[in-house]
Specification:
Layout (H helix, E strand, L loop, with lengths): L12 H12 L9 H4 L11 E3 L1 H14 L2 H4 L3 E3 L16 E7 L4 E7 L3 E7 L4 E4 L2 E4 L5 E4 L5 E4 L6 E7 L1 H6 L5 E3 L13 H6 L19 E2 L1 H14 L8 E4 L14 E7 L7 E4 L3 E7 L2 E5 L2 E5 L4 E4 L5 E5 L3 E7 L1 H7 L4 E5 L2
Antiparallel strand pairs: 1-19, 2-3, 3-10, 4-9, 4-11, 5-8, 5-10, 6-7, 6-9, 8-12, 13-14, 14-21, 15-22, 16-19, 16-21, 17-18, 17-20
The chain binds 1-hydroxynaphthalene-2-carboxylic acid (1HN).
The site of 1-hydroxynaphthalene-2-carboxylic acid (1HN) has 13 residues, from strand 3, strand 4, strand 9 and strand 10.
């Protein structure tokens, strides 16, 4: 990059006197900050980090004794990036948290500008209702709550339900575009039978003359059993990608695009003994181990992960995965937003 981006400027008395007068008029000299604000490549306060489920789960369960879902509205422990403490975010653009709904509880219906995805970790009898349809949560399912859709959660089962929430809250707040409101009722009325959206949009069929009217996928849920079976088949048909193993992206079946405009989601199988090459991309990514165990190198951080552990890899940080046994990783990032803006980049594989 141009030398001008890096040159150290001399601090003269004349300049500092000028800067003071600029300051009084709410103005500032670009040349003093140019190298800082126009980086030659991404440099972020976001750091690689790992949350072990064995550490977080007991705290999630303890939160169940501290506050009810109703009182909390949403009983969630935020996973805060250690480089971004106090900002309720796991990357610069994304929020992540672990949510608990205990047997018999209801998390009341509301809607907001922020889009959410949920990746189910534990429990088989919880549900989320979105736009008049309920979907039962099973471990490994991906559930969408697109921007401005009413959503409530409930747990009629006798076991706690825990999931990973991913929201684009920092993105929405970056644009100062947050709106939110409660539904007049605690639980929104159910207007369609369970499985309606999956049959209508998620079975390689679409209604006649269907044209998408919204940016988000018309699906509520992407059941794990189907995605897992597809990865298994693709693994048998081989070969695995040198960086990613067998990696697929969740899709909006009506457009072929991402499930939501601000967040993309991915599922990858790493075959037993897989040793991936390093690659990097500009979308900081949140990973969650669904099955198996392995190792991830993210820059100079090394993570040993197993089931339900969550880790985050910042923008442009070289990342490589290894699997000690066959493993499945779920992940999500702001890739669709970056691609829509024309600013997404990737690099790799780089030689081991
Ligand atoms: C929200 O609505 C949910 O609906 C979870 O489960 C986490 C974090 C911030 C703002 C809204 C939910 C959230 C949230």
């Amino acid at each position: 990059m141009d030398a001008a981006f890096h040159s150290k400027l001399e601090g003269t008395a004349e300049r500092s006197e000028f800067y003071q007068r600029l300051n009084e008029k709410s103005a500032a000299p670009l040349w003093e900050v140019l190298a800082e604000i126009v980086r030659t490549e991404p440099r972020t306060a976001c750091v690689p980090a790992l949350w072990r489920y064995e550490d977080v789960r007991p705290l999630v369960m303890e939160s169940g004794k501290i506050i009810t879902a109703k009182e909390a509205e949403r009983r969630v422990l935020i996973l805060e990036n250690p480089g971004l403490r106090g900002q309720s975010r796991i990357t610069q653009s994304l929020y992540a948290g672990m949510q608990l709904v205990l047997p018999g509880e209801i998390a009341p219906s509301h809607r907001h500008t922020a889009s959410a995805l949920r990746f189910i970790l534990e429990g088989d009898g919880g549900y989320t209702a979105v736009d008049g349809e309920r979907t039962t949560m099973h471990a490994g399912d991906l559930i969408l709550t697109p921007s401005w859709t009413f959503h409530d959660h409930g747990n009629p089962s006798d076991r706690p339900v825990v999931w990973l929430d991913g929201l684009d809250i920092p993105t929405v707040n970056h644009f100062d575009t947050s709106f939110a409101e409660h539904h007049p009722e605690e639980t929104q009325p159910v207007t369609r039978g369970e499985g309606d959206a999956l049959a209508r949009y998620g079975a390689n069929l679409l209604p006649l003359e269907y044209t998408p009217r919204k940016l988000a996928a018309p699906l509520l849920s992407y059941p794990y059993a189907r995605s897992r079976a597809a990865l298994e088949q693709l693994h048998r048909n081989g070969p695995a990608h040198p960086c990613h193993g067998v990696k697929m992206q969740y899709v909006n079946p009506a457009t072929g695009g991402y499930p939501m405009p601000t967040m993309g989601a991915f599922l990858q199988l790493l075959p037993a003994g897989f040793r991936g090459a390093a690659c990097r991309s500009t979308d900081a990514t949140v990973y969650c181990c669904v099955e198996g165990c392995g190792h991830t190198q993210a820059g100079d951080h090394s993570f040993e992960w197993k089931e339900h552990d969550v880790f985050v890899v910042p923008s442009w940080c070289p990342v490589s995965h290894r699997a000690h046994e066959e493993a499945v990783l779920f992940s999500f990032s702001d890739r669709p937003a970056q691609k829509a803006l024309g600013i997404w980049r990737e690099d790799g594989p780089t030689p081991k």
